Amino acid sequence: MNIYDFKVKDGKGNDFPMSNFKGKVLLIVNTATGCGFTPQYKGLQELYDKYREQGFEILDFPCNQFAHQAPGTNEDIDNFCTLKYNTTFPRFAKIDVNGENEDPLFRFLKQEKGGFMNDNIKWNFTKFLVSREGCVVNRYAPITKPEKIEQDIFELL
User: Fold this and answer.
1) CA-CA distance, 40 to 45, in Å (whole number)?
2) What is the pLDDT of residue 113?
């Protein structure tokens, strides 16, 4: 099993097959609009602008599980990110990343690259780097700024 076997929900709630990203290097991030790490959107967009033509995608999955820092609808979140940070990378429907309602994609990501204490995601802006072959190659803590991941992305491209 790899990442391309999953389907997620797009911002309008429609099924979206991850196989649409086959052959791309992916950075999958659980995000929030009201978090201390929210300014990382700027760095994420800079990476996306720099590398998308080489086959790089950032996949944004808003999550309201951590101190309710992603309030509002999918449309509200999309509007905020587009207007405040000029984001253009794909944004998906709000999800849970832990617990009984966790999204199957994030269950898989955590199984592939568990955390330090256990597999649970600790906070917003946890990042997973995925190779062109659909293999999860690294997991980054929320405090890891996007620019610190650039060399790893470059090497996969």
Assistant:
1) 9
2) 83
The size of the chain, in residues, is: 157
Name the phi and psi angles at 104, rounded to 5. -55, -35
List the CATH number of the domain containing 58: 3.40.30.10
Give tens-digit pLDDT for 104-136. Answer: 999 999 988 875 545 889 999 999 999 999 999
Active site residues: 35
Q: How many domains does the chain have?
A: 1
Q: What domain range includes position 79? A: 26-156
Q: Mean per-residue pLDDT for 86-93? A: 97
Is residue 14 included in any domain, yes or no? no
Dump strand ranges (E) for the chain: 7-9, 15-17, 25-31, 56-62, 127-130, 136-140
As to burial, measured by CB atoms within 10 angstroms (0-12 exposed, 13-18 middle, 19+ buried), residue 91 is: buried
pTM confidence score:
0.94
CB 43 within 8 A of CB 125: no
